[in-house]
Design a protein that fits this description.
The complex is a heterodimer.
Chain A: H1 2-9, E1 14-19, E2 25-34, H2 41-52, E3 58-69, H3 72-86, E4 90-94, H4 98-109, H5 124-157, H6 165-175, H7 180-205, H8 211-249, H9 252-258, H10 263-301, H11 306-316, H12 319-345, H13 351-382
Parallel strand pairs in A: 2-3, 3-4
Antiparallel strand pairs in A: 1-2
Chain B: E1 6-17, E2 20-31, E3 35-40, H1 46-53, E4 61-66, E5 69-72, H2 76-83, E6 86-89, H3 101-112, H4 117-130, H5 146-157, E7 164-168, H6 176-193, E8 196-200, H7 204-210, E9 213-218, E10 223-227, H8 230-236, H9 240-246
Parallel strand pairs in B: 3-8, 3-9, 6-7, 7-8
Antiparallel strand pairs in B: 1-2, 1-4, 4-5, 9-10
Helix pairs in contact in B: 3-4, 3-5, 4-5
Classes of the chains: A alpha/beta, B alpha/beta.
Bound molecules: adenosine-5'-triphosphate and magnesium ion (MG).
Chain lengths: 385, 253
């Protein structure tokens, strides 16, 4: 009774005894439970001792006393085997469990073809070089992508593009109407913020009514397009990259290519067109909602009358303001589609690559948008537009 | 060697996606230490059956139990505890692509055992060597071939020396020599470690080489149409579909 109880609580142990009777041979005598959960300190001790003995020509492994085992045992045999190979000693197995011996042999059978060892650790200079190479590749890819995109557009104009109308409609639906709620919310708030900002300054001069001008021009010329561009970069650009990237992972893009559907025409073209059309429309909508937001602030907090605010807004809005906002929005549309599709298509074949492609698509699109916005604004100033 | 102790017990199992029934009234036992082959035409529901056996999908009707303990229906926690005893090779490998092969195999060992770092490294190297991938530990899944991914998935399935191994088409995409080696490995896993192994496969050579028992699913009648050792089925089954399958489309003379 007492004994069984002791057995239950006693942890499993894997025994290993080193016997060194002859000068050039050692015996490793295994016993007990050779399992993952066993205590194997005896094994590391004996192996350490073996490593201190010089001139071993033969290692004999005796397994007759093993009670039970799992893959730890063949694993151990491999370690001893590797050491034997290192010191050019012979290895002999005695009374080892059949299964363990065969598993070990099977693992030795493997063609040890450690194909070129992969180098992952790199010094600072190498990393810097890699960054430069990566930037160069990306720039080249972007140029190539642009070139192919223009070719696809030409094919489209000639009516020879290999793409489906339904893909275009789906893309248009996804990046247009489905984005309305979020654009409404953000634009309304931006319009209100502009009105607040303007009112603080204009109050100093007693001309709060010009808040209407500031909001209308600000929303139509600038903020409508910019906010819509950034929202769609996060919403649609990311979706494009994830979608195309996953298709790349599943070899769907290869399948399209080999069947004679250039991905540029079949996948990218509908998406680019959808964004070029949707983004300006959404930008105008955003501008109008922003003006509404400004009006809410003007009427409720600045005590302007609705009619007054309306008339002031109408008088300040020129076709030029609307038009310049539209041009910006179209450019942003191209940039978002471009960066989303390009990152998706150059995605590698793994889930983490899809993640990287999506991140890059959004970050790049936002950077492109802000840079393009600055450039276009400068051009407008230069040509007095 | 197969024993006479029931390991997996499946009773009246009906599986469906939504309203669409895939297979109904499946009934079979898998003995401990047996290599059990699930076969049938493409799309008949073999992978789906596997998903039910490993707890990823709930049956519409029927029960599954392991060593007498209920699995479906059972509490989520009970099921998760039992799932830990299983090693699974998915049809597409399903390696985690942000980890190297060695890290893929090591993760279960790091999480569920108290092995030291060096023991884990040795264990990982053994498992990779067993599937013929010695020296590829530092590679990422995206850097190796489809067949190699399959074998690496197998190494990961064996990581914890599980009681039960489920293989979904282990030899698809492998050359004949690797496929033969894989069969040998499956036999060794069974004989050496005493594991129960459930294999979905189309490879006739390997069905006959390793199968102790088998189940034949039919897409048309949506149920099992044959049970038994593959060699015996070849001799004795009078179902023409089974005969055609086992003879690669040739009718019995
Ligand atoms: N997620 C799913 N939703 C709906 N139906 C599915 C789903 N997965 C599979 N099916 C259907 O279930 C059936 C069985 O699929 P399953 O993947 O189990 O086939 P299989 O026997 O493994 O085929 P194969 O040998 O080609 O791998 C198929 O007809 C398939 O259309
Ligand atoms: Mg399948």
């Amino acid at each position: 009774m007492n004994e069984t109880k002791e057995n239950e609580t006693k942890p499993l142990t894997a025994g290993l005894r080193l016997e060194h009777n002859e000068a050039s041979a050692v015996q490793l005598v295994l016993s007990g439970e050779w399992r993952k959960e066993s205590d194997r300190s005896a094994s590391s001790r004996a192996l350490g001792e073996m490593r201190t003995i010089k001139g071993i020509r033969k290692i004999v492994i005796v397994g007759g006393e093993i009670q039970s085992w799992d893959s730890i045992l063949p694993s151990f045999l491999r370690v001893v085997d590797a050491y034997a190979a290192e010191i050019q000693a012979e290895i002999e197995l005695q009374e080892l469990p059949d299964g363990a011996r065969r598993l070990w042999e099977l693992s030795r059978l493997a063609p040890e073809l450690p194909a070129q060892s992969v180098v992952r650790e790199q010094g600072f200079v190498a990393r810097l070089g890699n960054v430069a190479l990566y930037a160069r590749d990306e720039f080249r890819d972007a140029l190539k992508f642009l070139g192919e995109l223009f070719q696809a557009l030409r094919a489209l104009l000639r009516g020879r593009a290999n793409c489906r109308r339904s893909d275009f409609m789906v893309a248009l639906q996804e990046c247009g109407p489905e984005a309305l709620p979020i654009i409404t919310l953000i634009s309304l708030l931006v319009g209100m913020i502009l009105a607040f900002l303007g009112s603080v300054q204009l109050k100093l001069f007693g001309v709060e009514i010009f808040v209407a001008n500031a909001v209308a021009i600000g929303m139509l010329r600038e903020m409508g397009a910019l906010m819509t561009g950034i929202l769609l970069a996060g919403r649609t650009g990311a979706a494009f990259a994830a979608r195309l990237g996953t298709m790349q992972v599943n070899e769907e893009i290869d399948a399209l290519r080999t069947l004679g559907f250039p991905p540029m025409e079949f996948l990218v073209l509908p998406r680019v067109l959808a964004l070029i059309i949707a983004l300006p429309l959404l930008a105008i909508y955003s501008g109008l909602v922003g003006i509404l937001g400004g009006a809410i602030v003007g009427v409720t907090m600045l005590d302007l009358s609705p009619v007054q605010y309306y008339l002031q807004t109408i008088s300040s809005v020129t076709p030029k303001a609307i038009f310049s906002g539209l041009i910006k929005a179209s450019v942003f549309g191209v940039l978002v589609a471009f960066s989303g599709c390009m990152q998706g298509l150059r995605c590698e074949r793994s889930a983490s690559a899809v993640g990287r492609a999506t991140t890059a698509a959004v970050v790049n699109a936002i950077v492109y948008i802000v840079v393009a916005d600055a450039l276009i604004s400068i051009i407008y100033v230069l040509i007095h537009f | 060697m197969p024993t006479s102790e029931t390991h997996i017990e499946v009773r009246d199992l009906t599986m469906a996606y939504g309203d669409r029934v895939i297979q109904r009234d499946l009934l079979f036992d898998v003995m401990r230490g047996q290599i059990f082959v699930i076969m049938g035409g493409s799309g008949c529901g073999k992978s789906t059956l596997l998903r039910h056996l490993i707890g990823l999908q709930a049956p519409v009707k029927g029960t599954v139990s392991y060593a007498g303990e209920p699995f479906w229906p059972a509490d989520e926690e009970v099921r998760i505890a039992q799932m830990r005893q299983m090693g699974i090779l998915y049809q597409s490998g399903a390696l985690w692509c942000s980890m190297t092969l060695a890290e893929n195999v090591a993760l279960p060992l790091e999480t569920y055992t108290k092995l030291s770092r060096s023991d884990i490294a040795e264990s990982v190297s053994l498992k990779l060597a067993l599937v013929g991938l010695a020296g590829f530990g530092e590679y990422y899944p995206s850097e190796i071939s489809g067949g190699m991914r399959k074998r690496a998935g197998l190494a990961r399935a064996m990581a914890l020396d599980p009681d039960i191994l489920f293989f979904d088409e282990p030899s698809a995409g492998l050359d004949p020599i690797s496929a033969k080696r894989l069969d040998d490995l499956i036999l060794e896993l069974r004989d050496g470690l005493g594991a129960t192994i459930v294999v979905v496969t189309h490879e006739l050579a390997s069905i006959f080489a390793i199968g102790d028992d088998s189940l034949f699913l039919d897409a048309e009648t949506k149920t099992q149409i044959a049970r038994g050792a593959p060699r015996e089925l070849l001799q004795t089954s009078d179902n023409s579909k089974v005969q055609e399958f086992l003879r690669r489309g040739e009718k019995r003379k």
